[in-house]
Fold each of these.
Amino acid sequence: MENKTVYLDNAATTAVDPRVVEAMIPYFNENYGNPGSMHSLGLGGQVALDNSREKISSILNCSTEEILFTGSGTESCNMAIKGVAHHLGKKLKKGNHIITQKTEHHAVLETCEFLEKEGFEVTYLDVDRFGMVNLDDLKNAIREETILVSIMYANNEIGTIQPLEEISDICRENKILFHTDACQAGNYLDLDVEKIGCDLLSLNGSKIYGPKGVGLLYLRKGIMITPLIHGGGQERRLRSGTENIPLIVGFAKALEIATAEKEGETERIGKLSKKLTEGILSTIPKAFLNGHPEKRIVSNVNISILDVEGEAVLLYLDHRGVCASTGSACTSKTLDPSHVILATGLPYEAAHGSIRFSLGRNTTNEEIDYVLEILPEIIKNVRGISPVNLKAEDFKEYLSEANKKISLGVVA
Amino acid sequence: MSEMKTHIDVKATVDSKNWFYNDTVKEHFFTPKNFLKDEKEVEEFEKVSNGVGQVGSPACGDMMKLWIRVEDDVIKECKWQTFGCASAIGSTSMLSLMVTENEGMKVDEALKITPQDIVKRLEGLPARKFHCSVLGDKALRGAINDYFRQSGQDDKVIVEGAKIIDKILKITDKDIEEAVLEGARTLEEVQKKTKIGAQDKSCIPEVEQLIRFYTEKYFG
């Protein structure tokens, strides 16, 4: 076991599924034609592109022309938010106000901050201690000038699932466009855009056992956006650049597999997450689960462990072959702890001690047993060397017995 | 456990080439020297130590406590506890070694230890981890000051003053230094961390000069 890698960082990125690799290979150097070319090799590329779009649109329950391929989830979020802002806001002068929330991925937050510099106004909604937005806050934030609401589907750090259908209803009533970053949702949640009720949706390959470097933007028919990239007019002139056929084929295949295995994996991984969470909370004192106890993505286990610093724990875990991640400042470029954990109201000292395990398709029961076996000892050592001893009563509401049980019923 | 399946595309990453830190830091992180491993050891050592310094807080993400036992102005023992990342733990461990090796260092010499000296002995730290080693020498200076007070040499206590730069928000040169150590390199980045110059615009040229000074000092 010590020489194997236990990969519990699937929210960062996933291994490419061998079935996906197999599907992609012919498109690198056999069927390498440019779909824009007027010969049979080019036509082969066009067919592969059409088939991929077809597969994906049936999963998203939309038409093929509503799917635009991009280079990543980040690009999709940029394209959605800047695209709407520049078209509706700058060109048509419909308004200059955007609403999002504080635990969004940087792909959304930084894009909004950029737009603020261009003169747009952005409201960043607060979340509660479970990471949920408040629908009344959303209603109250809406102004006449509001042109877009961007709220993520499931959070990448703490796994909280936002109430998208209700958010969509509010947006429709007020005739405001609604974008959702669904990059963490592909494996476990329903991607039917009619049910979600979104106008734009961002998704990528690298979190669903597909390749990195490919994403998509779902853009509801009739909505215009200003493109980020101009050139040869691919993707309905909205995203120029020769279509990356092997990656698009792989992305479609990955989404197809994820959808077919969604139900089984949700149940299997849900059980493992529950076991890991309850196992950690019952053996390690002064530890609690971050995120929502029920409305959370089944693969996410994010635990704050008081009196330890996340990076040290991570490196000890890595030394024993376990890959996880942390919201500690030490691993971020800005040296600030996770904005997500802080937004849920936890103090800095607890944010530094947050560890995220994100389970996945390759995670086994034995791996969970192994983590449960080594983690208490690691924490004991790191705590031993630490001069910090936070008072449990200051974290009473987090450390209660009731918080040691989680239920992962929701999904699909 | 032996029947674990091997993952298709990931291999064990625990080899030094792939490690974020170099081998020296790694050694001091996994097998730290001179640390006090629990409350009991702290209690025991406090009976013999004659200087203690503390710096940082859990909220900042780094906190160090450092105890010294000094005989005739020579540091004979240096023990510590650290809450922080691998570079914080590694640099405190290295510092404790530096001041006690070769029969111990004179306190006057120890006061001259700079973050660069520690980083040099560690054979380098990633740039953004640099601020962790700064805490070590600050904690040591705190412990030595404490020793001066305890041994009746109050005249030797060094008080590090800070100069107010932003007169409205009362932001000091130390705050700018801290921001630079945390990775800020431009006026905009320092303002994001400190709000300096938000109202007192007149201080901005001096702020920019200080950013260049500290960037040069620590990262030049």
Note: The CA atoms of residues 20 and 79 of chain A lie 26 Å apart.
Amino acid sequence: MTIDDGSLTGPEADHALAAEFALGLLEGDELQIARDRMAVDAVFAAEVRMWQERLAELALALTPVMAPARARHAVRERLGHSVAPLSVDPADRVPVWRGSAGWLTGLAVAAALAVAVFSPALRSPQDRDGQQTETAGYRARLVSDDNALRVDAQISGREMQVTLQAGAAAQGRDLEIWWIDPDLAAPVSLGLLPAAGGMRMSLPGELEPGADIRIALSDEPAGGSPTGQATGPIVAIAPFTSL
Amino acid sequence: MIARIAAGDRAAFGALYDATSAKLHAVCLSILKDRPEAEETLQEVYLRVWQGAARYAVNGLSPMTWLITIARNRAIDRLRARGSRPIAVVNSRDPLAPDLAETLPSAEPGPEAAAIASQQRRMLADCLAQLSDPQAGAVRAVYLEGWSYADLAAREGMPINTVRSWLRRSLLRLKDCVDQ
């Protein structure tokens, strides 16, 4: 690629080159020359950094999109951190079992779910009482079209209880729970509905309860959506209402 | 925090992931417009962060800019390797998929972005606003969607060299503006 703007003076051409390098527009020899120059030309390097800082503001203005929990686990596994958890972040409680269930089958799924469904209930209900008293509660009642499936979701503070009242997933399928926030770019998976009874979870930090939130259940392959977004039909959806 | 990560602190790394992954995922998605690819790229970004944290101190960038730059570079590498750009972006099998516009960069900063908006941010936005719409749109498309000069030329129906000259002028105007 040749430069067809001979009218640019030397300094201007340098300024433009720094911007193009920061934007990733350079290719081939020009890219290599700019890279080399970063190492030896402090003025050029500083100008590239200035562009990177300025332009990063555009990225910061993007709506955040939560990645599926399995991405976090995959990073941990690829770094060989899978024995010691990356952190003890409370948000981890929700994703852990969903991520681990994704690659298990048959009885292993049932076992993993049993552990996952019940362990958050043992660990989390009491540890945020302070917030619970300050924050309003919300409830959503999910009912399928044929009335066969009924699920209640109730939020108190940052704890959510999901209870299966009636119905079940189809044979060999799972029902996945989705949090739909108009301010988030995509629905966020909250994991799989237990085959019986209820589950309790701490909401991840990014999720803010409110009356504009809806919750949905989608019909998914055993173990949950393989893509991190709903792949099957929505069998029930409901808004949260303030208690 | 990055110094702790460079020292092998996994808890710090986990905290960094939790604090920044949704933003970096948005960057990857904005460029790649494909969920599985964005997710895979996001993983690569954090592998690089873990491995490159020790070198961070010498690169002179603010922490978030460093992370965004890594995410953007990885996503663009993948985009260029792919060769072609998918036009239809929304997965039609996803009944919950939001309108694409929601995942694309908006000219208006969100509330969160507005809250942390610096003087610099306002200046960049102001300066972009002083460019013509096509010029500002081209800068955004290149930065946020990873467009190349060839993409711009195809979109504008102009030769690559003409597009390049036009964009370089825009960038110089932008620089003059933010330098004031």
Note: Chain A touches chain B through 66 residues (CB under 8 Å).
